[in-house]
Write a structure and sequence with these properties.
- The complex is a heterotrimer of chains A (127), B (247) and C (300).
- Chain A has 127 residues and is mostly helical.
- Chain A has two domains: 11-76, Winged helix-like DNA-binding domain superfamily/Winged helix DNA-binding domain (Arc Repressor Mutant, subunit A); 79-126, no CATH class.
- Helix content of chain A is 63%, strand content 6%.
- The relative contact order of chain A is 0.11.
- In chain B, helix 3 (65-89) packs antiparallel against helix 4 (97-133), helix 3 runs parallel beside helix 5 and helix 6 packs across helix 7 (200-213).
- Chain B is globular, with a radius of gyration of 22 Å.
- Classes of the chains: A mainly alpha (127), B mainly alpha (247), C alpha/beta (300).
- The B-C interface holds B 1-8, 11, 14, 17-18, 21-25, 88-89, 91-99, 241-242, 244-245, 247 and C 28-29, 47, 52-54, 63, 69-72, 74-76, 78-79, 83-87, 89-90, 94, 98-99, 101-105, 148, 178-181.
Chain lengths: 127, 247, 300
């Protein structure tokens, strides 16, 4: 996985989000061991301290718990809580940006909703 | 990450070995100049012709002196180069000025030892060559008693030490101030000419030469050389200790 | 524990202040990047840290000691730049052996493996190498020595991009295996920034910034849009860079002292918010003119 250097987001946040995605997609399930800071540092080619920061972000929100001497593990319910968080924060933010762009282009709300519906149908078809 | 404590002795040892490895070519240069000196020596140190109408006698005096002189010049140059190398190479790795100078000193001691011994034995080689190659009128002085050989080596080694130390000193001064590189030879050779004349400087110079070269007691001679070399090195150590690393 | 501590450090050469009143600390086992314009005093600072130069005023402590002419410090430090002088008569593999004996942590196998990887022949001579290959060899020494303080001063001169990438990775991997304090001075900040913990930015011999990389990324923000709107948001002191785009649009880089609402509002008003690349940021911070080189061409 390549990081996006042009993103406004610091690298540790990008790593944290990638880990959240892994949990959401069941690549790492509850009570399974998550990647260590050194594994992440190697995968993303970054300083291990940066990777550790990403992990601690998740730990702060209690998506991970620590087992002494063994490392960090995915908390139970983490997947659902991450999902909620993403909806309330990330998705909401994206919505906001879409609205801003629509406003800039003077696209009325009803047309915007139509566009979203069409896009949703398209996504369903491609599944 | 652990901090590693070290001491002067182990660092000096490592630097000494490093200098040996970095300067192996020096031995070859020693051999070459001694061979050259050898060849030149076969032409004789001095010659004389005596003749009448019917016979002409060409007298050639051959000695190993040229070999010694060449070797001593080599020792001086090695001293000079060692100073340049120490300045240029040492600081990149583990060193301080003291360990660098000490290691250089040990290195020069070794080279002087080698130089002195090989020079004497080169002289022996000369005699051997001439014995087989030329008709010798007299074999006086052809064989040398082991004691004489040892004494000769010993003295040559000490002279080599002195000259390497002088070369090193000169080299260190030159690193400090490039202008001195020119100034000192000028002063030196100038005073040589002055030595022919009766000036105060000339007299002083002659006295210095007599001090070293006319010493007959081996012990005293050793003492003089050792003290002079020690003095030179102590001076170098004292004045390079605050020297920064500059290009 | 502080690996390096500097207090009001100054170094003057013939009335030119190369380093002036510099105070900072560098913690151990972190990778710190050192950036600044040419002639800003980076190399002088590194040489003061390495004990090659004496401070004119102020003090510098490495491992709690004065590094000048100090055997203890020298034994735990290595300084790699493009002026590394090596014995001319030794081949590459002999040089590695000769140099390795100075360092108790020396990794002979790693050095040999790196030599092979970068296509350097063990029997070659250093003097015959190209500039890039010399830099590669120098960096191999720097990494394999595993000194508690490892300093690299523009070590990638002459290396092509692929080799540079490999080296950053080699350095990172060895750092993870054996943590140590690393200072890396380079002009190619964009290439090394993911490697770094902290960044020390030097401007005209003085410390301008010393921050962790993450904070640096949030230090400033780029605003693109109508000049009138943007000017209302920012005070002149905050502006780091500005450039006119068209009739009444500008691109402006300002210190990021805005909260989320201000930025949201700006977006709603059509202002585009963009991140500022770290190397661009450093350029703006160390610039003389707020408009960059365009000022020269628009002096009428």
């Amino acid at each position: 996985m390549i990081l996006n250097p042009d993103s406004l987001k610091p690298i540790y946040i990008q790593i944290a989000e990638w880990l959240e995605l892994e949990i959401l997609q069941d690549a790492i399930k509850s009570d399974e061991k998550i990647y260590s800071q050194y594994q992440l540092a190697e995968m993303f080619n970054v300083n291990p301290a940066t990777a550790a920061k990403g992990l601690s972000l998740l730990a702060e929100e209690n998506f991970l718990y620590k087992k002494r001497g063994l490392g960090m593990f995915v908390a139970p319910q983490a997947k659902e809580r991450i999902r909620q968080k993403r909806i309330n924060e990330n998705l909401q933010q994206l919505v906001f940006e879409v609205v801003a762009e629509a406003k800039r282009l003077q696209v009325p709300p009803e047309e915007l909703v139509n566009m979203i519906q069409r896009a949703t149908q398209q996504a369903v078809k491609e599944e | 990450m652990s901090f590693h404590e070290t001491n002067l002795l182990s660092v000096t040892k490592k630097q000494f070995i490093y200098k040996l490895q970095a300067n192996l070519g020096i031995l070859i240069s020693l051999m070459i100049i001694q061979l050259l000196a050898l060849l030149l020596s076969t032409a004789g140190v001095s010659s004389m012709s005596v003749g009448t109408n019917l016979t002409i006698i060409n007298l050639k005096i051959i000695s190993g002196d040229i070999i010694i002189v060449f070797t001593l010049i080599w020792a001086f140059i090695v001293g000079y180069n060692t100073a340049g190398n120490a300045y240029r190479l040492d600081y990149h790795f583990v060193t301080n000025r003291l360990s660098s100078n000490l290691a250089s000193g040990c290195f020069l001691l070794l080279t002087s030892l080698l130089a002195g011994i090989t020079a004497t034995f080169c002289g022996v080689l000369l005699r051997v060559l001439l014995y087989f190659w030329r008709d010798l009128l007299t074999t006086k002085g052809l064989s040398m008693a082991p004691a004489l050989l040892m004494k000769g080596s010993y003295v040559t080694v000490l002279y080599a030490c002195l000259l390497s130390a002088l070369g090193y000193f000169y080299g260190m001064l030159a690193q400090r101030n490039k202008a001195l590189t020119v100034l000192i030879p000028v002063l030196f050779f100038g005073s040589l000419f002055a030595a022919a004349k009766d000036t105060r400087a000339a007299q002083l110079f002659r006295q210095v030469l007599v001090f070293y070269f006319s010493e007959s007691s081996l012990a005293l001679f050793t003492l003089k050389i050792v003290l002079t070399v020690a003095l030179l090195f102590i001076t170098i150590i004292l004045f390079t200790n605050r020297m920064e690393v500059r290009k | 524990m502080h690996c390096i501590e500097s207090k009001n450090l100054s170094k003057t050469f013939d009335k030119i202040k190369a380093v002036h009143d510099l105070s900072f600390t560098i913690e151990e086992n972190k990778i710190t990047g050192l950036v600044g314009r040419n002639g800003a005093g980076k190399t002088t600072l590194l040489k003061l840290i390495a004990g090659y130069l004496l401070p004119t005023t102020g003090e510098i402590n490495v491992f709690g000691r004065n590094p000048f002419n100090n055997l203890q410090v020298a034994a735990n430090l290595i300084f790699i730049d493009d002026q590394l002088a090596l014995p001319e008569n030794l081949s590459l593999e002999e040089t590695l052996a000769a140099v390795g004996q100075f360092y108790p942590n020396w990794q002979a196998e790693l050095a040999r493996a790196l030599l092979d990887y970068f296509s350097l022949q063990p029997r070659q001579y250093y003097a015959n190498l190209s500039k890039g290959m010399k830099s590669s060899f120098n960096m191999i020494i720097g990494i394999a020595a595993r000194c508690p303080l490892t300093i690299f001063d523009e070590p990638t001169v002459g290396m092509d991009a692929a080799v540079r990438k490999d080296f950053y990775r080699a350095l990172l991997k060895d750092f993870m295996q054996y943590p140590r304090t690393i200072i890396f001075s380079s002009h190619l900040l964009s290439e090394i920034e993911e490697l770094l913990d902290d960044l020390l930015l030097i401007k005209a011999g003085e410390k301008y910034l010393h921050l962790p990389l993450d904070e640096l990324r949030n230090y400033a923000v780029g605003l693109t849009g109508r000049e009138s709107i943007i000017r209302k948001m920012t005070g002149q002191e905050q502006v780091l860079f500005q450039q006119k785009l068209g009739r009444d649009s500008i691109y402006l880089v300002a210190r990021n002292t805005f909260d989320q609402q201000t930025l949201q509002q700006a977006r709603l008003q059509g202002v585009e918010i963009s991140p500022v690349a770290t190397d661009d940021l450093c350029i703006y911070l160390t610039a003389q003119h707020k408009g960059g080189i365009d000022d020269v061409f628009s002096r009428n």
